[in-house]
Amino acid sequence: MNDDSHESTMSTALPNALEARGTIDPTGSLDCGVIGNCAFSALVDRMGRMVWCCLPRFDGDPVFNALLDPSEKGSLWSVELEDFARSEQVYEPNTAVLRTRLFDSGGNGIEITDFAPRFLSRDRMFRPLMLVRRVRPLGSGVRVRVIMRPRFEYGAKAPEITQGSHHIRYVGPDQTLRLNTDASLNYVMSESFFLLDRPLNFMLGPDETLADGIKDTAHRFELETISYWRTWSRRLALPLEWQDVVIRAAITLKLSLYEDTGAIIAAMTTSIPEAPGSERNWDYRYCWLRDAFFVIRALNSLSEVGTMEDYLRWLSNVVARAKGGHIQPLYGIGLEEELPESIIEHLPGYRNNGPVRVGNQAQEHFQHDVYGNIVLGAAQAFFDHRLFRRAGHAEFVQLEAVGEQAFRLYDEPDAGMWELRTRARVHTSSVLMNWAACDRLAKIAEELDLPERATFWGERAEIIRNRLLTEAWSEERQAFAESLGGRDLDASVLLMAEINFIDPMDPRFVATVDALEKSLCDGPYMRRYEAPDDFGKPETAFNICTFWRIDALARIGREDEARVVFEAMLAARNHLGLLSEDTHPDTGEMWGNFPQTYSMVGLINCAMRLSKPWNSVV
Q1: What is the Cα–Cα distance from 53 to 77, expressed in whole angstroms?
Q2: N or C: which end of the chain has fewer CB within 10 A?
Q3: Please, which residues have CB within 8 angstroms of residue 458's CB and are 6 or more apart in sequence?
């Protein structure tokens, strides 16, 4: 297989790709693709500019930060084409390998292939902290220049630059990056335009010497990485409809796994605001137990249980450390408990919407739904016979300690799943998840042939269930409210049907769907809640809530409406099929951190819910 072996694939895929003409918005855009290898990730915009990459792990120093600093001080890695006219960008099908084509006014151009190597080598996963860029000419007479400007300490420090025979070193206070390349080092260091008359290879990673030649290594890594992702995607149990949507969402969720520990990050960025000028800017590069559960649930539905096995390693450490006591809603991906929140004053922020935050104060919160999310996240491991190591009695005993916390705290006020910083209530969503903890423990006990424990947890689940059905219902609103005894509406109550708390055809649930649509929907999109929070009333729609609405509509027999809303959400994705956290109902723009695992989960769940069955055509 030679360097041009992917051309036939690209010729069929590219006409469906977004085309960009002229220069892009200099202040930044979420029209980006994500590459990674379950150790770190990077964002590449539609001009082929690498605008975000944290090293040595997801929550590390953004050595490329142009997404949050579009000024001359921002750091990025680009390959610019002289006389640029338009661009095309697609993923190599069923992989995390990204291809960007830039064309000049004469129709000639370049192709940039970006990826982070990931494949099996010597019976273990090879996932180095390395970015590979391969650039080849399309046509003749094209001139390019390479802009390589990493920075350190969140952009505060420029590197010391040294040069070897075939490499350039970028030396920072805490890490050194080495660029191995077969391009002219002089052209790279001077940022000069030069004639691209042959394919070039760039490999950025740790300050280590390559064992083999640059070209051969880059070529082999590309082929091996493509093979890995195609094999991984081939094993997914897909719905009949929207298969490409589901595959892209699944790969994105997999890329959000920090394989070393098993943690799953909520998103790959920090401080992309939920709405312009809102200051709702948060750091999502950590592992929320709530978000991780939904990721696991979605991937399990596709028969991808490997991520669950990795996550359970991380989760068992969280549970063991707690020793039956308080569990935080989120931790660092290395199990760090303290994630102090601070502001990086010198970064202007996405489209100049500061502040830029590092760390997340929510680690201090009491969010009682966390206990249900733990039990739900682990439950399948007791039933699934495919796993290398099924959970058993020892793991059940550990989870019972979590269940004790769930029952002890189910009617205590907390910050809720939306992490309200100045208001505590007995949130319906938290009570619901604490019911789920007890309910699933009862089912696990039955599976383990422990009838006394099954009865014990079943009785506790029933206590919570009766209280929730009675006190969360608002006669005034004819809906389940966001808190016990409350009247405000909140989209999270739609989870009642998803986790099998209530029959979706129960008149109270059907009435709740109607009430939520009237109060929270802007066209197809749904906001989280109606009551003002710490920053006022939310301006944008929260994508996962829209997906919960789609699921609920399908469950109550309004499937045609569900499909219409789902198609609207498909249209809200960027040109590569990725979603952020929020959608602006007026402009359709993406806001919030990106790519958001919650949103990608919604794509999978709704496609699985709405798709016609395979036996309808085969």
Answers
A1: 10
A2: C
A3: 438, 439, 442
| Residue 14 in this model has a pLDDT that exceeds 60 | no
- 305 neighbors 237 (Cβ within 8 angstroms): no
> Residues near 79 by Cβ (< 8 Å), separated by ≥ 6?
48, 102, 110, 112, 133, 135, 144, 145, 146, 147
**What is the rounded end-to-end Cα distance, in angstroms, of the chain?**
34
Helix/strand/coil percentages in the chain, nearest 5: 35, 20, 40
Q: Which amino acid is at 568?
A: A
Encode pLDDT of 246-269 as tens digits.
Answer: 999 999 999 999 999 999 999 999
The pLDDT mean for the chain works out to 93
520: helix, strand or coil: helix
- Alpha-carbon gap, residue 553 to 438, rounded angstroms: 27
Instruction: Supply the pLDDT for residue 468.
Output: 98
Please give the helix or strand (H or E) that residue 373 lies within, else none.
helix 370-379
Cα–Cα distance measured from residue 559 to residue 146, given in angstroms and rounded to the nearest whole number:
51
Distances (CA, A) of 341 to 60, 352, 465, 551: 14, 20, 37, 35
Could you give the domains of the chain? 77-213 (no CATH), 240-611 (1.50.10.10)
CA distance readout (Å), 180 to 144, 177, 375: 18, 10, 46
User: Binning pLDDT at 50, 70 and 90, where does residue 538 land?
Assistant: confident
**Cα dist. 590→30, 274, 467 in Å?**
7, 9, 39
Global confidence as pTM: 0.94
Q: Percent of the chain, pLDDT > 90?
A: 89
- Average pLDDT of span 303-319: 95
Residue with tokens 């930044």: 28
| Residue 131, helix vs strand vs coil | strand
Confidence of residue 144 (pLDDT cuts 50, 70, 90): very high
For residues 84-101, one letter each, b for 16 or more C-beta atoms within 10 angstroms of the residue's C-beta and e for the rest, the string is bbebbbbbbbbbbbbbbb
